[in-house]
Specification:
Blueprint (H helix, E strand, L loop, with lengths): L6 H29 L4 E5 L3 H11 L12 H8 L5 E9 L3 E8 L2 E7 L2 E6 L4 E3 L11 E3 L4 H13 L7 E6 L5 E5 L4 E3 L5 H12 L7 E5 L7 E4 L3
Parallel strand pairs: 1-3, 7-8, 10-11
Antiparallel strand pairs: 2-3, 4-5, 5-6, 8-9, 9-10, 11-12
Length: about 230
């Protein structure tokens, strides 16, 4: 006959069994959380100094469960860096994220409230403090919306006009532009029909007889006003 075991001892055995099992489960849970904790963030596609600034922002994500980090959250963190055009985020389990970036092309620079900003092909004003490389590019003056400049820039490119020979753009309240070229030539464009005006301008500058031209004024429809340097 087996010796009888008191209910007290049975309860005591069960208590220790549950206690030891709980300790094991807690340790397993902690190990699981640590295994998927974000430890490494790799950034490619930008200069060293730009990479340092981006890492400083993204390091706030470290030690977060990588399974809870989605691409949208990373994109939100990078939204402040206006020089970035394309972002590709890849999780590498269990604890790394790889980010490939491409930077936008710089089309010009302007001044807003006394600060220098670059104009990106991505349609954003980029504070020059974000970019460590200094670009030699055209300066745009006037209070303009960036989409208006991009529209003009695209028209110039479509007509194969050499934008790298433009030193200054001047924008006026009536949505009109003046362009100043590196050789000193000034082109005054109309508010409308910019594309047709640029076609006329190209024909004029290819005319050998206009070598002494200072200003080509196309502001009035069906009218060309040419001013020479000696006038």
């Amino acid at each position: 006959m087996l010796p009888s075991i008191s209910k007290y001892k049975v309860y005591l055995y069960l208590f220790f069994l549950i206690f030891l099992s709980s300790i094991f489960n807690f340790k397993s849970l902690e190990n699981y959380k640590d295994m998927f904790s974000l430890k490494t963030i790799t950034i490619n596609g930008v200069s060293y100094n730009e990479q340092i600034n981006i890492e400083e922002e993204l390091n706030k994500l470290k030690n977060t469960n990588i399974l809870k980090i989605n691409e949208f959250y990373v994109l939100k963190k990078l939204d402040k860096f206006n020089f970035i055009e394309d972002i590709y985020v890849k999780k590498i389990l269990p604890s790394s994220i790889n980010i490939n970036l491409s930077t936008t092309s710089i089309l010009g620079k302007t001044f807003l409230n006394g600060e220098e900003f670059y104009i990106g092909k991505n349609g954003k004003f980029i504070n020059s403090n974000q970019i460590y490389e200094k670009y030699k590019t055209a300066t745009i003056y006037g209070k303009f919306e960036i989409k208006e400049f991009l529209n003009l820039y695209n028209i110039l490119n479509s007509q194969q006009l050499k934008t790298n020979e433009i030193e200054y753009y001047y924008y006026f309240k009536n949505r009109r532009w003046d362009l100043v070229f590196s050789n000193g030539l000034i082109l005054k464009l109309p508010t409308k029909n910019k594309e047709d005006s640029i076609k006329i301008f190209k024909e004029l500058i290819n005319n050998d007889k206009l070598t002494n031209t200072k200003i080509i004024d196309l502001r009035v429809s069906n009218q060309i006003i040419i001013t020479n340097n000696n006038e």
